[in-house]
Amino acid sequence: MQIAMPGRGRVWSWVLIALLLMLLPMLAAGVHAAPPLINIGSEPLTAACRAATPAAGTRMGGTSSLAVGDLFSATLDASDSGGHFERISLTATGAPSAGAVLWDAGTILTGAPGRAPVPEPDARRLYTSIVQADGRSAGVPFAWPALSAAQQAMLDQAPPPHATSDGLGARRVAYLRGDRSDEGAIFRRRGSVLGDAINSTPVLVGPPAGAALDAGYLAFRERNKARPPMIYLGANDGMLHGFDAASGIERYAYLPDALMPALNRLPSPSYAHRAYVDGPAISGDVLIAGNWRTVLVSAMGGGAQGLFALDVTDPEALNEASALWEFTDRDDPMMGNLTTLPQIAKVHTSRGGDATSYRYFAVASSGLNNYASDGHSSRAGKGALFLLALDKPRDAPWKLNANYYRWTTPISDSAMANGLSAPALTFDRDGALSYAYAGDLQGNLWRFDFAGWPSVAVQALFTARDADGRRQPIAQRPMLAYATGGGYMVLFGTGMLFDRSDLAAGGFATQSFYGIHDSLSVPMDVVAGRRQLTERVLDASSADLFNLSGAAIAPGSKGWYVDFLRSSHTGERSIGSGTLLGGAVIFNSLLPGTDKCDASRSRTYVLNALSGLPEGLSAVSIDPAAPIVGLLQPAYSTLLSFVPQLTTRSAPDPTGQVMVTKDYAVANVSAGTVAVAGSIKVRLRSGRLSWREVANWRELHEAIK
Asked: How far is CA 330 from CA 52, 260, 379, 541, in A?
């Protein structure tokens, strides 16, 4: 059927049709532009999951940290998602001592028949923030009368699938504070008031120990030299806890406002374990408004998209004013879930003579899923590096290029998941940020050059691909070593583990470890691919140990790489950063079980950071003499640590040089256990490192008068 139209109307109809035809491809691209989402698991992914209903009291692996000669270990009660956080005393060899558990913060906080909880629920110093849509915030006690109307409405709501107001908000707050009177009646029972900590990292904050020599910092160190050590830990009870490191007693806790919409789920009898504050954290001393302070910056992991900063200078004065800010995808849609470590850095904000000035920032990547359709998404799937000013006043809104800065990294393949991982930072002689290196899940290694601040050059130094050209994800923070002849050797492994499906054999692919040389040449000397690197080859000398071979680094080579042995079949990968020690790069890989629900194991590698071989470590010797290459460990170790054992000093040679030898036990820490893999001797020069005769010293002295 044909419809007659007036001439002018017919023209406009054809114009509209033409416009629609032009818009259709763009609309289709918009619909399909976002990459696939990453499922972020909240369970201990490397522990076994075969039991359908774990027995009461079953402990599952969490996070651990070695500090001050002791082990701090967090574990999960699998039956009710209760948490335990223990301080365990270690012997000189790195093994737990007799009667090793010094305290359990979960037990202290929960109490028991005849033993009251410490502190009592009403006496706990719990705080949150009321955050405005533009980022302005005000700290308040986490108590029902102090919360905003919006926060009360969220806590007054029954959890899904009901999602209706039930008037239980005040009782939910009491439950979250540790009140157990409603347990078993309207709320679920808990074996421990403390939540579990699966992916967060314990952070020990003691007296200031920075190297700054200005009078203000020296006075700050003197004032705080007797500051009692605190240990901070994010948990899946919605809180970042601050525990007295000596006693295990909770002194403070902060509940991010960003998690408020999900807090009503925690007391529910039908509660299913989920992430809350399970991201890594870091602390450092910074200058804020002319005063030195100690701050802690914590990511929220899978709990929410963003991070927050606290002033933890004085453990005795932690209160509602201790929260500096929160920064989430509501403030910038390119912010995602941060599962890797944020950093703290000093940045040159102006240069030249007496006008040189600095500012301190939290440095964080955009993380995962910033393109999720959550009302605050960046659909393109690009990555971003953020600098967030630690001196932002609480009553100031977030403003791009004023108190926060952002630089983006393009996406390479919109059909693949993307996300920028934590950066490794380098600093100039003044301690100010000079370069940042960060990898993404599409295998790109990005370099950010801060020489032209606030203009920052962002370039891809290298793209990790296997022998068949498939992209390899970089989900860890790189390590940096000084390279022979200048520049840096950027060291990192490939592979990822965000969800238990990543352990399924059907998804295994070749994964590798790389050492990429950045010469710092201008323009940047891009490493085009494997053909410019020197290959190292693994072969099995036994099931528990490998051999590693390869040619010497040839002139013109831009680094080295090694493929994990048969990793497309075994699933071996590198998901966590290692350690640099005495010229060696020391790291653990993850080795999945034969089924995705089997417990994972790991392998330990000690390689020359510059050559990628086990030989040539002039500063390191290994006992036993056999190199540690792929040494099989019985469990996956989330932490590779070095327990000091013995330090010896040689007599000075004729030039005054002294050799210091430090013995370390190489300890793998997992779920509260310590397995010693071997020992390492590190030899360092001390005293006068070199000397030369200056025959014309008097002439030179006179010339500079």
From this structure: 38, 14, 14, 53
Quote the Cα angle for 102-248-276, to 5°: 120
Residues in the chain: 705
Q: What tokens appear for 148 in the block?
A: 């905003």
Given strand 281-288, what is the order of strands in its sheet?
281-288, 291-299, 306-311, 323-328
Question: Is residue 194 within 8 Å of 237, Cβ to Cβ?
Answer: yes
Q: What pLDDT does residue 4 have?
A: 41
CA 475 remoteness from chain centre: 10
Three-state SS sequence of 541-592 = CCCCCEEEECCCCCCCCCEEEEECCCHHHHCCECCCCCEEECCEEEEEEEEC
Q: Which tokens sit at 366?
A: 């955009």
For residue range 486-545, what is the model confidence (pLDDT) as tens digits? Answer: 999 999 999 999 999 999 999 999 999 999 999 999 999 999 999 999 999 999 988 899
Strands (E) across 305-393 are located at 306-311, 323-328, 343-350, 357-365, 367-368, 383-389
Q: Is the dihedral of CA 467, 473, 479, 482 positive or negative?
A: positive
CA angle (577 as vertex; 446, 359 as ends), nearest 5: 60
User: Residue type for 705, please?
Assistant: K
| DSSP conformational letter for 112 | B
Q: Which of 248, 196, 234 is nearest to 84 (CA)?
A: 196
Question: 454 and 400 in contact (C-beta within 8 Å)?
Answer: no
**Sign of the alpha-carbon torsion through 276, 280, 282, 287:** negative
The rounded distance, in Å, linking the Cα atoms of 253 and 231 is 11
Instruction: Tell me: pLDDT of 699 over 80.
Output: no
Instruction: Provide the 8-state DSSP code for 600.
Output: P
Question: Tell me: the pLDDT tens digits for 306-339?
Answer: 999 999 999 999 999 999 999 999 999 999 999 9
Q: Which two tokens stand for residue 523?
A: 């323009």
Residue 99, sorted as left (phi over 0), alpha (psi -120 to 50) or beta, turns out to be left
Element (H, E) at 539: strand 534-540
d(CA 103, CA 119): 15
Tell me the C-alpha to C-alpha distance, in Å, between residue 258 and each of 153, 163, 307, 336.
Answer: 15, 18, 9, 13
Distance in angstroms (rounded) separating the CA atoms of residues 200 and 303: 11
* Distance separating alpha carbons of residues 106 and 86, to the nearest angstrom: 8
Token representation of residue 353: 């003579």
One-letter amino acid for residue 406 of the chain:
R
Extract the tokens encoding 612: 């990628």
- φ, ψ dihedrals at 363, nearest 5°: -110, 120
**E strands, 16-125, in order:** 59-67, 70-77, 82-90, 96-104
CB 516 within 8 A of CB 490: yes
User: Exposed, middle or buried, 185 (CB in 10 Å: 0-12/13-18/19+)?
Assistant: exposed
Residue position matching structure tokens 């403003």: 399
What are the Cα distances from residue 581, in Å, to 306, 561, 587, 626, 655?
32, 19, 11, 18, 26
**Domain edges within the chain:** 56-267, 468-640
Which H/E stretch holds residue 107? helix 105-110
Instruction: Give dist(CA 304, CA 688) in Å, integer.
Output: 52
* This prediction's pTM: 0.89
**Which residue type is seen at 286?**
V
- Percent of the chain as helix, strand, coil, to the nearest 5: 15, 40, 50
Closest CA to 478 of 350, 359, 340: 340
User: CB–CB of 60/44 below 8 Å?
Assistant: yes
Residues forming a β-bridge with 515: 491, 560
What stretches of 419-518 show up as alpha helix (H) in DSSP? none
Say whether 87 sits in a helix, a strand or coil. strand
Question: What's the rounded Cα separation, in Å, for the pair 73 and 62?
Answer: 7
